[in-house]
Amino acid sequence: MSKENILNAIRRGLKRGPLPDDQAMGLRARLAGHPRHLIPARSRVSRPEQIALFIRNIEKEFGSVARVADFAAIPDAVAAYLAARNLPTDFAIAPHPELADIPWDTRPLLQRRPGRAQPSDLVSLQHGYAAIAETGTLMLPAAPERPTTLNLLSDTFLVVLRASRVVGAYEEAWDLLRAESPTQPGGGFMPRNVMLVTGPSRSADIESTLELGAHGPRRLHVLLVDDDPAALG
Amino acid sequence: MSQPAPPPSRRPRVALFVTCLVDLHRPTVGFAAIRLLEQAGCQVEVPRAQTCCGQPAYNAGDRATARDLAASILDAFSGYDYIVAPSGSCAGMISHHFSGLFDNDPQQRTRAEALQAKTFELIAFLTDVIKITTVPAVYQGTATYHDSCSGLRELGLKSQPRALLASVSGLALKEMVEPETCCGFGGTFCVKYPDISTRMVSDKTRDIAATGADTLLAGDLGCLLNMAGRLKREGSPIKVRHIAEVLAGMTNDTPPIGEARG
Amino acid sequence: MLATSPAFKQNVKGALADASLQKALAFTRPSFAGKRTAAVAALPEFEQLRDVGRDIKNHVLANLDFYLETWSANVEKSGGIVHWCSTADDARAAVLAICQKAGAKTVTKGKSMISEELAINDHLEKHGIEPVETDLGEYILQLRKEPPSHIIAPAFHLNREDWEESFRASHTDLPEDRVFGERRDILTEARKKLREKFLAADVGITGANFLIAETGSSVIVTNEGNGDLTQTLPRVHIVLASIEKVIPTLEDACTFLRLLARSATGQDMSVYTTFSTGARRPADLDGPEEYHVVLIDNGRTGMIGTEFQEMLRCIRCAACMNHCPVYFTVGGHSYGWVYPGPMGSVLTPALIGVDKAGHLPNASTFCGKCESVCPVKIPLPKLMRHWREREFERHLAPQGMRSNLAIWAWFAKRPQLYRMATGLAARLLSWLGRGKGRVASLPFAAGWTAGRDLPTPEGETFFARYARAQREGKL
User: Fold this and answer.
1) b or e along A153-168 (b: 16 or more beta carbons within 10 Å of the residue's beta carbon)?
2) In a domain, C358, yes or no
């Protein structure tokens, strides 16, 4: 039995048998408490500074951000972004209630197809679950209302994100997920897939020179909804 | 500088670890070290029963020989306030690796730890322990300084040589592009893998030449022999010296490394 | 993968003579080091994080059995299947069985160094399954039938002409007169070809940067997004992971994510960091229906409890090779097996035997740069020295070197005889260099004089001169 072979080989190397109960208890307590380690000071700043840090980091990683006052302003912002780049106005969109509630009829030319992405999609619009200012990173957990393929198959990737969902450090994003994620089959909280996305797809494999849009999106654009008075500064 | 020497009773007793390469190749470096230490107010002695720190054996995987040589150094050098070597590599061997050779011998290990704590590379000793900030030397020229690996990464030797060189009258320092990159010497590495070593030292001499400096300085004779050998092979006029020769004002005592008296 | 490590010296000769390789090495070297330096400078806590990372890994290794069992139980709770494999053979068989059960014809692959250890592509091909590497660098290497030369930039040794030539030779369905004007054109063609493969694949195989015990997750870190397409689109996802990848919690992962990209590419964070936990959930619209992890030992347990245990902290960032002057002289292929550079010089002897890989830990100047940049503070030179000790104990080192060392040691232990011998040697060498201060060729130092002159000694040894000065009252 390979499992026993491997575990026994480890124990032989460590010169002990299976862990005594008291030590195993200590380790289980560590897992249950999942202690934080050092969190860099760069994200320990005021809310407005955290938002500014998030935007700065997204832009540093070749993404872009448009701040909008509320959800009602999103259709205009999407239309403007697509038009400025001469992109098609039909796109796949996450079947998320927050996105469905947007007054899309103000921009009737925008054609939405709720669901997962198809390989032919040029533009997709995802629901941003949370974001991490520390490195300008989006947290996108898979869910029926947040299909993973939307993050990957299109050439232009739009994400709607509430400013109130921008946290400073990775640990704080995990805290949100631990608290909010529905219980999964098996009892855990982790969705099937959690993507942390920092900028558009890229590769430096050809002559060590950076090119955007390797297999995933070439453009990443975040529509940041200013729903957080504290973050406005 | 010429600080007044402290009274004899308080003068630190320093044992000079000459190093095998300085002994064989370039005694002037040993005498330069003595002069610098004495100028700094130390009482210098040279224990007779020293040969080599054992690094060649240690790095060849021969721990038994390395341990034997370390044991004889423990015997010869235990009675001093400080042990100082004009080489980051040899000083690092003693101060960072000796105690590990005696894992199974607590008594020797304790002695080794005591010796380690008082062993220093020459320039680090002068600046960090004796707190020298200047030397009274004169050298007319533009020098570039190579950071030898052991001194740099094991002992943290970086600003100290530059600080002392800045006090040498007439000397200008011009940094090369990657002063911290290994020159390719690596002890027996250079004869085990001559192809790799030659390429590495060629990269180094290219960087040295690109500074336009007329003099190359470093603190380890192994690296200096390697770089001087390559520079001379390339027909370069750049003069190569151990930093102690310049700081002690002894550059008239001997020609640059790889050159004849003339 | 067949090791050419025993032929290291011949490999090196070839690499030094390869002008296009040397050009790529020279071009890449400053950028690798420069990007890390900048990223580290922008994070004042980086040095402290290295200590934290080292400590977490040490904690895991001391309790590895516990964390693997916990992780495995959590994988199965979340609907995944763990296949424990002691050997590469076991792992190949496990992967093949999953693929065959899925009726797979095409398998896409994300970048995975352990898959190189297993030579899984050859195994699948032999059984009629087409493996397709989807990382751009790995893709062209597969077309060219070359192994990677670097663990995170596998094809940086190739230039644009190599890419174009391979694409023309392999993508024969595309118009012959198409133009590759710039790098973008190469990328666009690769994207198009690989999209077809992503959509056709029945099984996707990825590696894992980390396994999370707390949640039973596997984590991949990529920039292209190929790993995510590989694991999202096919019906079956297989993760290949070695046992030392496990870490306790998501919070522990945060520390390693802060270290990894900065050490690797000099990014603050790679573009895609993806945590996979089990298979598609009932209401999900996408994702694989099966999630397997093939957990592989392949020699690692043999390092536990030895002086090489510290090597199991490695997170495969490549900082050591990115900063290694030897690596940038000889390139990755010279090392002759899966893992090049300093980390390979320690790991390869452990996995394929020091009798085959003995050159690797010897071909180091011990300059220490690798250790100084390692995000988990592995003392790589010290571990290489331990391999030299193993070699010395087993009489594997070259006999000539060994006898020279023995003769030198015999004298070095006898100071008086040593003085006589060095006195003679100093005089003889000085005489040989008379009038020049150097010799251009010396039979017993041919390795030295092949590339440089040998500066000759001043003539009298230090100790002779010192004794004379004392006699003459000059000291």
Assistant:
1) bbbbbbbbbbbbbbbb
2) no
Structure tokens at B48: 């007779």
| Secondary structure of residue A88 in the 3-state scheme | coil
* Percent of all residues in chain A with a pLDDT value above 70, rounded to a whole number: 99
Query: How many distinct structural domains can be found in chain C?
Result: 2
**Which domains are delineated in chain B?**
8-127 (1.20.1050), 133-247 (3.40.50.11810)
We report the CATH number of the domain holding residue A151 as: 3.40.50.10420
ipTM metric: 0.98
Strand C210-212 versus strand C246-247 pairing type: parallel
**Residue A187 zone, left/alpha/beta (φ > 0; ψ -120 to 50; rest):** left
C68-102 tens-digit pLDDT: 999 999 999 999 999 999 999 999 999 999 999 99
Tell me: do A79 and A130 sit in the same domain: yes
Structure tokens at A193: 């897939």
Cβ C285 vs Cβ A147: under 8 Å: yes
* Cα–Cα distance for residue pair B261/B254, rounded to 1 Å: 7
Chain C residues in contact with B182 by the CB 8 A cut-off are: 325, 365, 367, 369
| Distance to chain C for B63, nearest Cα, Å | 7
With beta carbons less than 8 A apart as the criterion, state whether B18 and B84 touch: no
From C282, C298, C314, the end of a domain falls on: C298
Question: Cβ contact (<8 Å) for B200 and C325?
Answer: yes
Residue of A nearest to C44 (CA): A40
Q: What is the pLDDT of residues C241-252, one digit of tens each?
A: 999 999 999 999
Q: What is the dihedral of CA B245, C455, C457, B249, to 10 degrees?
A: -10
Rounded to whole angstroms, the Cα distance separating B187 from B126 reads 26
Rounded to two decimals, the pTM is: 0.96
**Distance between CA atoms of residues C143 and C164, nearest Å:** 12
Q: Are A48 and A27 within one domain?
A: no
Write out the residue range of the structural domain in which residue A194 sits: 42-232
Q: Considering only CB atoms, which chain C residues are within 8 Å of B48?
A: 415, 463
Neighbours of chain B (3+ CB pairs under 8 A): C
CATH at residue C150: 3.40.50.10420
CA angle, C83 as apex, C82 and C87 as ends, to 5°?
Answer: 145
φ, ψ for residue B211, nearest 5 deg: -75, -20
